[in-house]
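Input structure tokens:
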């Protein structure tokens, strides 16, 4: 009986826009990345150092640094070196910005957020 309930839960959680699911699985696959994407979406002109960004979102800089790097590698953020320091800003790519905006808009819906949380947790295991 528990197995049927788990299957139903999985089916409900898998009922998600395929593009948004891919965005979650490939780019926003941790809660720290989710916080970072939300921060840069709300502050698109921010260009700053990892320790400052960590402070803005209330996270440990030692954890935020690698997550920023991963978001830059996946095209969500732009990373550059300035006087020997790494700085991050939102990607200038219009297509990626549109994907980010779609994700953030979808996050306004409670059911979508629950599904997204499910997929982040599922991806962590």
């Amino acid at each position: 009986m528990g197995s049927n309930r788990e299957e139903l839960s999985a089916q409900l959680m898998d009922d998600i826009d395929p593009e948004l699911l891919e965005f979650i699985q490939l780019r926003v696959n941790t809660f720290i990345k989710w916080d970072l994407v939300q921060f840069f979406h709300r502050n698109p002109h921010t260009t700053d150092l990892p320790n400052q960004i960590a402070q803005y979102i209330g996270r440990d800089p030692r954890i935020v640094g690698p997550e920023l790097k991963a978001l830059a590698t996946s095209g969500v953020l732009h990373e550059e070196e300035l006087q020997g320091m790494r700085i991050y800003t939102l990607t200038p790519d219009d297509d990626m910005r549109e994907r980010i905006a779609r994700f953030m808009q979808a996050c306004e819906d409670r059911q979508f957020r629950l599904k997204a949380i499910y997929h982040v947790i599922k991806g962590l295991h």
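DSSP finds seven helices and three strands in the chain. Residues 2-124 form a domain with the Arc Repressor Mutant, subunit A fold (CATH 1.10.10.10).
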